[in-house]
Design brief:
Elements: H1 2-8, H2 10-18, H3 29-32, E1 46-52, E2 60-63, H4 79-88, E3 105-106, E4 109-110, H5 123-134, E5 136-139, E6 142-146, E7 163-164, H6 165-177, H7 182-195, E8 214-222, E9 225-236, H8 248-265, H9 269-272, H10 274-288, H11 318-334, H12 342-363, E10 364-366, H13 367-374, H14 398-403, E11 409-416, E12 419-425, H15 426-435, H16 440-452, H17 454-457, E13 466-467, H18 472-479, H19 500-509, H20 513-524, E14 536-537, E15 543-544, H21 553-567, H22 581-592, H23 595-598
Antiparallel strand pairs: 1-2, 1-9, 3-4, 5-6, 7-8, 8-9, 10-11, 11-12, 12-13, 14-15
Helix pairs in contact: 5-21, 6-8, 6-21, 8-11, 10-11, 10-12, 11-12, 11-15, 12-22, 15-16, 15-19, 19-20, 19-21, 20-21
The structure holds alpha-D-glucopyranose.
Alpha-D-glucopyranose binds next to helix 6.
Protein name: Alkaline/neutral invertase
Family: Belongs to the glycosyl hydrolase 100 family.
EC number: 3.2.1.26
Length: 610
């Protein structure tokens, strides 16, 4: 239909050109012809221990082996990584880091005012550091990550003995802020190797750029030689995970950590490596591939992020969109221009603008917007519909009517045709602030909302993963009667101390660190006494979660990152992104062309009803 062509293509394209952004085409097929370098054909890594079993590890000797494929021993496979490890994993010497301009570390900790924080004065922090170090996982003698939980009394370990990509992010940042760079560098480079692993589930393979949810270092007998063992990195892409969900967030977090590593250490040689650049592009290729979508948001299945089991967040959940936006911004900063990358950069820029417009316009909720939705006309068949997604006002949940404060607002959890998920999801909102996916005003409004709803979102322990919990029939249908996700537990309204670090970055970015300080103070009252639980239960977060692990690493690391950043707020800039003028310009062009802004309700024409 000719009319729809004019609506679909020119508005975006013409806006960009009039705003002097690079012109773009939604068809960026050259990107899809991108070929990984030959080094990426490796299928994960093995590391042979040349000593007899039981002896102390001394000289690792890595071989590459295809998982489920015939083993291919190749001693020179790990050339670049191992070379880096040997030639100095701690790029502290001679590196110009942003940290150089900051106050000198005191006992390794950065202090904003130069005051000494002598060992022992903060026993909780000391304990946290000890625990974090105890959770370190080594491969070929080098630190490469931290296990999810180190609970000595837990009877069922499940996969908590693995290194989860998302869980490692606060650990990695804590180490970066402490000036211990090697573990982060190793993590980045080794997980990159896993990206190209052979992965299948019932004969189906997901996209090439997928990063695993987690991996484990296994010590196994060496084929053909019983007296020797080798270490194997064994990733899980979801093929073994409960529910078999692909972790969409892993690759996005990997890009975010890579950028933070470069910013913090000043060592951009890692992000400039050919294999790292290839890794970034593979992740982008997977995310930017053409599909059936009408929306610029990333379409994913339920459980593809921190909430990794069924919670009714399939579709376009905010958490994924915030991480997606953030990863695009970080990748744009790190991609080295080269022949053939123009299409990718163009596609990325276009997506950034379309994505921020979509989220800021359609996900935003405050009193004014609720009132607008309350008075929505429905069944508007037209190109300039105000109620584009055909939301029926009756969908506004009764809890929301009283819950929304007069001041403040937030981004809703999800948006689909005829469906708004009005729940508040913390990580998505906080990371929208951190990445500047939310506007400056929206970011302040989200923090206003957090302050106004402190009793519900924080109560006795920061921070509710989402609000409110689903109960009764809704819980039964949406979670599939999940006994772990009962109301006010785990993903269903449980409180997760790890979210402290994202809260801290967001509040520092907006110049309101006192919000994070208050939350940290509250956490300090219990968290160490309670043995660093994974999550807390009940409306007010009064109980340790019924199935929560103790000594959960990202609870420990999240607390440490919060403390380190509050002591040295300027370090938060390693994690935050500011909207640049190109994006701002394109965004304001789009917003002025939006019917919702240009068309007042009075002028509304009679909608076409089909
Ligand atoms: C749970 C969480 C997930 C986390 C994992 C390891 O499955 O839902 O987000 O990565 O535990 O801690």
């Amino acid at each position: 239909m000719a009319a729809s062509e004019t609506v679909l293509r020119p508005p975006l394209g013409s806006l960009f050109s009039s705003c002097h952004l690079p012109s773009f085409s939604l068809n960026f097929s050259p990107l899809l012809s991108f070929k990984p370098s030959s080094s990426r054909k490796r299928r994960g890594l093995r590391c042979t221990n040349t000593l007899a079993r039981g002896d102390t590890f001394q000289s690792p000797d890595c071989v590459s082996k295809g998982k489920k494929l015939q083993s291919t021993r190749c001693r020179c496979q790990r050339n670049d990584i191992e070379e880096d490890i040997r030639s100095n994993l701690l790029p502290t010497d001679g590196l110009k880091s942003d940290l150089d301009e900051m106050p000198l570390p005191v006992n390794g900790n950065l202090s904003s005012n130069g005051s000494t924080q002598s060992a022992g004065t903060n026993s909780i922090e000391d304990e946290a550091w000890d625990l974090l170090r105890q959770s370190i996982v080594y491969y070929c003698g080098s630190p490469i990550g931290t296990i999810a939980a180190n609970d000595p009394n837990s009877t069922s370990v499940l996969n908590y003995d693995q290194v989860f990509i998302r869980d490692f992010i606060p650990s990695g940042i804590a180490f970066l802020l402490k000036g211990e760079y090697d573990i982060v560098r190793n993590f980045i480079l080794y997980t990159l190797q896993l990206q190209s692993w052979e992965k299948t589930m019932d004969c189906h393979s997901p996209g090439q750029g997928l990063m695993p949810a987690s991996f484990k270092v296994k010590t196994v007998p060496l084929d053909g030689d019983d007296s020797m063992t080798e270490e194997v990195l064994d990733p899980d892409f979801g093929e073994a995970a409960i529910g078999r969900v692909a972790p969409v967030d892993s690759g996005l977090w990997w890009i975010i950590l890579l950028r933070a590593y470069g910013k913090c250490t000043g060592d951009v040689s890692v992000q400039e490596r050919v294999d790292v650049q290839t890794g970034i592009k593979m992740i982008l290729k997977l995310c930017l591939a053409d599909g059936f979508d009408m929306f610029p948001t990333l379409l994913v299945t339920d459980g593809s992020c921190m909430i990794d089991r069924r919670m009714g967040i399939h579709g376009h959940p905010l958490e994924i969109q915030a991480l997606f936006y953030s990863a695009l911004v970080c990748a744009r900063e790190m991609l080295t221009p080269e022949d053939g990358s123009d299409d990718l950069i163009r596609a990325l820029n276009n997506r950034l603008v379309a994505l921020s417009f979509h989220i800021r316009e359609y996900y935003w909720l405050d009193m004014k917007k609720i009132n607008e939705i309350y008075r929505y006309q429905t069944e508007e068949y037209s190109y300039d519909a105000v109620n584009k997604f055909n939301i029926y006002p009756d969908q506004i949940p009764s809890w929301l009517v009283d819950f929304m404060p007069n001041r403040g607002g937030y981004l809703i959890g999800n948006l689909q045709p005829a469906h708004m998920d009005f729940r508040f999801f913390s990580l998505g909102n906080l990371w929208s602030i951190v990445s500047s996916l939310a506007t400056n005003d929206q970011s302040h409004a989200i923090l206003d909302f957090v302050e106004a709803k402190w009793a519900e979102l924080v109560a006795d322990m920061p921070f509710k993963i989402c609000y409110p919990a689903m109960e009764g029939e809704e819980w039964r249908i949406i979670t599939g009667s999940d006994p772990k996700n009962t109301p006010w537990s785990y993903h269903n309204g449980g409180s997760w101390p790890t979210l402290l670090w994202q809260l801290t970055v967001a509040s520092i970015k907006m110049g309101r660190p006192e919000i994070a300080e208050k939350a940290v103070e509250l956490a300090e009252r219990r968290i160490a006494i309670d043995k660093w639980p994974e999550y807390y239960d009940t409306k007010r977060a009064r109980f340790i979660g019924k199935q929560a692990r103790l000594y959960q690493t990202w609870s420990i690391a999240g607390y440490l990152v919060a403390k380190l950043l509050l002591a040295n707020p300027s370090a938060a800039k390693f994690l935050t992104s500011e909207e640049d003028s190109d994006l701002r310009n394109a965004f304001s062009c789009m917003i002025s062309a939006n019917p919702r802004r240009t068309r007042g309700r009075k002028k509304t024409q009679q909608p076409f009803i089909v």
